[in-house]
Design goal:
The chain is α+β, with helices and mostly antiparallel strands. It contains 4 helices and 8 strands, in the order αβαβββββββαα. The protein has an 8-stranded mixed beta sheet with strand order 2-3-4-1-5-6-7-8, with helices on one face.
Length: 206
């Protein structure tokens, strides 16, 4: 389980702002993660034997944000372009969540994408600066002239906060994190399976 972005101070502060009603009722999330790279069939990015594909490598980040803010999806629509090795090289995903919330997510190995994320609510919105998956800065928008910027320290390669949380759990004998519960990890994995099943993408050994 490597969803280190959940543990970043900026991510936790953002989640608290949303939960506290800073932007009203959340209606939509837009998030992308994409970079351009050359096709290399032996690379873990493209080799199906190594779990290749954009969805599992970088699509997990937009999906994690949608889960963090909106919870698990009730319905999923997804389209992908599969490359010569049979794995997804780019995809677009639309999910419908509880209370009518929508998340629009994309990932790509074929193009650089803006790398920002936006959470839109009935009373405002939040923009997470690029690279949003390694968040250190976000802006709360609540009408003209009412923007509020939040900045946080991004330590190390991004894993420091997750490692510290894990060490604290070991010291106190806890077996589950409040920040990233076990059930949510399983639900995200199941959602990844549901998405790629729509494309007929299967990995060796399944």
């Amino acid at each position: 389980e490597a969803l280190w972005t959940r543990f970043l101070p900026a991510s936790r502060a953002l989640a608290a702002q949303v939960a506290g009603g800073a932007i009203g009722d959340v209606r939509m999330i837009h998030a992308d993660f994409g970079f351009q790279t050359e096709f290399a069939p032996e690379s873990r990015l493209f080799d199906p034997k190594l779990g290749g594909g954009a969805l599992l490598d970088i699509g997990i980040y937009p999906l994690n944000l949608a889960f963090m803010i909106c919870g698990p999806p009730l319905a999923i629509e997804a389209m992908a372009n599969l490359g010569p090795s049979g794995v997804d090289e780019e995809s677009a995903i639309l999910m419908h969540h509880d209370a009518g919330r929508l998340s629009m997510l994309s990932c790509s190995f074929r193009a650089d994408t803006p790398g920002t994320a936006r959470i839109i609510g009935t009373a405002g919105s939040i923009t997470i600066d690029r690279p949003w998956w390694a968040a250190s800065r976000f802006t709360l928008h609540r009408g003209e002239g009412r923007d509020q910027v939040f900045e946080y320290v991004h330590r190390g390669g991004g894993y420091t906060d997750e490692a510290e949380a894990f060490m604290a759990m070991i010291r106190t004998g806890r077996r589950e994190s409040d920040i990233m519960p076990l059930g949510e990890s399983l639900a995200i994995l199941e959602t990844l399976d549901r998405i790629r099943a729509r494309w007929g993408l299967h990995y060796p050994g399944e």
